[in-house]
Design goal:
Elements (H helix, E strand, L loop, with lengths): L1 E5 L9 E5 L4 E8 L6 E5 L5 E7 L7 E6 L2 E8 L7 E7 L4 E7 L4 E6 L2 E7 L8 E6 L6 H22 L1
Length: about 160
């Protein structure tokens, strides 16, 4: 299943819909304004919160956490030593890790678990700057988690680019 992310460049609070491949609204990203730290809620179309995404206040490297029902599911941060391409890691609360590799800046990357691709993030079919697709490869995957990881990587990558400029 594919999901289409169209971020609104000038939206108040970074709110936007994520549609499925049939054009139906599948998820809503609700950016919380006036918060001490960057906070987003991933909701279903009925407003039920599926995950809360937060940037950690204090960390050596920019890190985002994803929580569900008040419990931390995973943290996402850039790997320290990577050659040629950017790589991020999503460390689950269970200790397992998902690898995020590819061209992060151009939004052409994969989310993998033990070498198996769970999702591909790509904007190669889109001309609009802030539009990309999330192709979920496995039917048994937790789609909300994979979308939350993609949102985290996108935010962390943008923050890194802003710091470099």
């Amino acid at each position: 299943m594919k999901y289409l992310v169209r971020e609104k460049i000038l939206a108040l609070g970074d709110d936007y819909w994520i549609e499925d491949e049939n054009g139906n609204r599948a998820f809503y990203v609700d950016g919380k304004v006036l918060r001490l730290r960057d906070t987003l809620e991933l909701q279903d179309p009925h407003g039920t919160v599926l995950a809360v995404i937060r940037k950690k206040l204090v960390s050596l490297r920019d890190t985002m956490t994803v929580e569900r029902d008040g419990e931390e599911l995973f943290t996402v941060k850039k790997k320290r030593l990577t050659l040629l391409r950017d790589a991020y890691r999503a460390k689950l609360a269970s200790g397992e890790e998902l690898e995020i590799r590819g061209d992060i800046i151009d939004k052409e990357f994969d989310i993998e678990y033990e070498g198996e691709r769970l999702a591909r993030i790509s904007r190669k079919w889109f001309r609009v700057r802030d539009t990309y697709a999330i192709g979920v490869e496995r039917e048994d995957a937790d789609v909300a988690v994979l979308i939350a990881i993609a949102v985290c990587v996108d935010r962390l990558s943008e923050a890194e680019q802003d710091e470099e400029e």
